[in-house]
Amino acid sequence: MTDPLSEPDALRAAAETMRQVRERCVWSQRITHRDLVPYLIEEAHELIDAVERDDRIEMREELGDLLWQVLFHAAITAQSPSDPFDIDDVARGLTEKMVRRHPHVFGDAVATTPDEVLVHWNAAKAAEKRERRSVLDGVPAGMPALARAHKLLGRASSVVEPAEGASAQVGQPASEAELGDALLALVAAAREQGWDAERALRERLRLLESEVRAAEQAG
């Protein structure tokens, strides 16, 4: 049995650790891609929390936990009898894609501003996704609603004007439907300002949590 800690390449050691865990741990052997989804979501949110709190120690740990999820999924697919691929295939595909999407870095294209970089990125992405029939294709249905609204508004802006009510003044909603209009309007306003509605709500909730905990301690 290979000792992963003796491997000089840290990423290779992590992949080898995952391979042995998948093959020899009775719990891990039974895990499927679907089983891992809740852990993937949880680890991603824990990393987001560490980033927004600027906790460098937690960031390093949570990045590792998120990497473990990637390695776990790749270890499962490596055992597929019909269409196997491993972490090397994943890494190779990622590298090829990033080279294609950065022609100003790896090719002769020129980009001197962030906007010009996005032009190259979007052109390369469009070429890769020729099978898509709508600008909305590829927006995950499982995204948090505020984040998905932000994404959909950005995609939709290239085709239609903002949805009716999306840019209206936000008043007191009289129904759940009006509440939906008001939330969409707030997301549209945030997007116009370059703000992240999902992050804004998280930050406000974090402040609320601090206020509640302070009140509990004071009481």
TrEMBL record:
Gene3D superfamilies: MazG-like. It comes from the Bacteria. Residues 32-106 form the NTP pyrophosphohydrolase MazG-like domain. Signal peptide: none annotated. It holds the Pfam family MazG. CDD domains: NTP-PPase_MazG_Nterm. InterPro entries: MazG-like_dom (IPR004518), NTP-PPase_MazG-like_N (IPR048015), NTP_PyrPHydrolase_MazG (IPR011551). This is MazG family protein.
